[in-house]
Amino acid sequence: SSDLSGSTLAVAAGAGTTQVDAATTVTVAATTTKKLLVLLVNFTANTTTPYTATQAAGTDFTNANSVANYFAEESDGQLALTGDVFGYYTIDFDTTGCNYTDLATKAKAAANLAGVSVSSYTNIQYVFPNLPACGWSGLAYLPGSESWLNQALTLRVASHELSHNFGVHHASTWNCTENGVRVTLALSTSNCVASEYGDPFTVMGSASTRHTHDQQLASLGWLPAAQRLTVTSNGTYVLGAAEDTTAAVRVIRVARGDGTYLYLEIRRPTGTQFDNFSSTDPAVRGVSIRVSNDRSEEHTSELQSRGLISYAVFCL
Q1: pLDDT tens for residues 25-45?
Q2: How far apart are CA 2 and CA 144, in angstroms?
Q3: 71 near 222, Cβ under 8 Å?
Q4: What are phi and psi of 291, to 5 degrees?
Q5: pTM for this one?
C-alpha cells in the first residue's frame, strides 16, 4: 500500500530480434465496472462535516471532472466507476492517533448497522475530518479495495488513491549527475536524488490529474498488447502517440541487458479533459524514456527537442 504524503504505508539494447507483443489488429478489452462505496465518517470528538453527500457524489461520480470520468477517459472507456455515498457515521475513535484500520472497521460496522450492503462493493473510500496525527492527505492499499481521504476529497487525491487500489505505484523523479554535471541517467543510482512524487505528467506524480504513462496503463490492462512493441535489436521503429488508440504502436520497450527495459512514449496535445497538454508543454516536445524492471521499479527521463531534461517515474 502507499500514501500520498510518502510518509506512511507500503505501497544499450541487448542483441536479439524484434518482437511484436501481439498482432497489430487492436482489440479493446471489455469494460470493467468498479463499484465504489463512499463512507462519510466523523468522530465523537469531532463531529464536523467537511463535505455533504451531494458534494462527495459530485467529486466521485457526477461532476464533469469527476473521478469516474477521469478513469473512463484514462482507460479509453475500459473502466466504468459507479457507486454510492452514505453517512455521516459518527464513530468512537481516538483522534489523537492514526489507526486507519480501526477507523475502517468501525465505519463499516456503522454502515452495515444502517442497512448498507458493504460487501456488494468492490472498493471502499473513507472520507473524514482532518486527523493531524495521520500526516497524509490520502492512503490506499496497493493493490487493494480500501482508501482513506484525510479531509482531502478532491479529484486529484481520490483518483491517485484509487489508482493504487487498481495496481499502480507512485511516479517519482531522479535528478542525476556525473562529475557535477546533470545527466539523463547516471551510471550509478548513488549519483541520483529521488523525489517521490516528482513526475509532473501523471496523477501518480506531482499535483496533476493527467493520465498515467503507458507502462502503467499496460500494467492496468488498458493498453492492448497489440500496441506494445518489444525491441531487442538495432533498427528504425515507428512510435505513435500514447493518446492515439488507433496507432499500431503506442509504446516501445527495449531490453537493456541487465533485466531492465527502456519504455519509449510520445505524448501529444489532444484537447481531452484530463490529459490537457498544450503544444508548448515539455511532455509533448520529445520522447519520454522510462527505465523499468516492469513492476517493482521505474525511472523516467524526458528527452526534449531543445535539450536534455531529466525526469523519472519510480514505483516501489
Answers
A1: 334 455 799 999 999 999 999
A2: 11
A3: no
A4: -100, 125
A5: 0.82
